[in-house]
Amino acid sequence: MSKHDLVLYHSPQTRGSGIVFLLEELGVPYTLKVLNRNKGEHRSAEFLAINPLGKVPTLVHNGAVITEQVACYLYLADLFPEKGLAPSLKDPKRGEYLRWTAYQGSSFEPAVVDHALQRKAGDPSIMPYGSYSIMLDALYKQLDNHSYLLGDQMYALDLFWGSTLKWCREFNLIETTPIIDAYIDRIVSRSAFIKAIEIDQALLQKQAE
Ligand SMILES: N[C@@H](CCC(=O)N[C@@H](CS)C(=O)NCC(=O)O)C(=O)O
């Protein structure tokens, strides 16, 4: 068993693309198993046995199945501590790192989906994210005075947030500010992000043949 024995189930231009970005940033070997969603490959019995939701990203490592983007980012960054993309358990930044990584799945995504679908907002006291604007303001405030979410050092969560915010900006799901635009651009200009885009383009081309 090796820590490099990583398999990522992925479809191009999905939430899986962020995990490809992270793997490229880590510079570790991995195997991509590409699912053609147009052909319904993510609904095959074989894949549903691994992830009953039929969703990507789905990571398999030494027999363990890791689903949910948040878990995939945390898992991979911890698996390669020498790469410096996760504060260690003893690092005072660890709590904030977990907080702002979990925030993506627990608060940001549900708020953005509710907002995009124009669902009637419930009272902030019963919504898991308060309100869309409270949720977004808190995130943006975190980026007011630094280059990265936790200060001047980039961690895996910045790859997560940079690519998430870019995607949301493209689909007009959020309004950005010059500070947020600069943050997104700082992240997506990284060579690992450009490589992940190229991988997706090649996969899309192959799937279209
Ligand atoms: N909660 C999941 C969501 C994953 C997700 O929605 N993935 C989409 C692609 S962006 C998917 O696999 N959709 C396939 C389908 O259900 O048709 C996560 O955070 O990873």
Automatic annotation (TrEMBL):
PANTHER family, alphabetized: GLUTATHIONE S-TRANSFERASE FAMILY PROTEIN (PTHR44051:SF21), GLUTATHIONE S-TRANSFERASE-RELATED (PTHR44051)
InterPro entries, A to Z: Glutathione-S-Trfase_C_sf, Glutathione_S-Trfase, Glutathione_S-Trfase_N, Thioredoxin-like_sf
Pfam families (UniProt xref): GST_N
Source domain of life: Bacteria
Protein name: Glutathione S-transferase
Organism taxonomic ancestry: Bacteria, Pseudomonadati, Pseudomonadota, Gammaproteobacteria, Oceanospirillales
Organism: Marinomonas ostreistagni
Domain GST N-terminal: 3-84
CDD domains xref list: GST_C_8, GST_N_GTT1_like
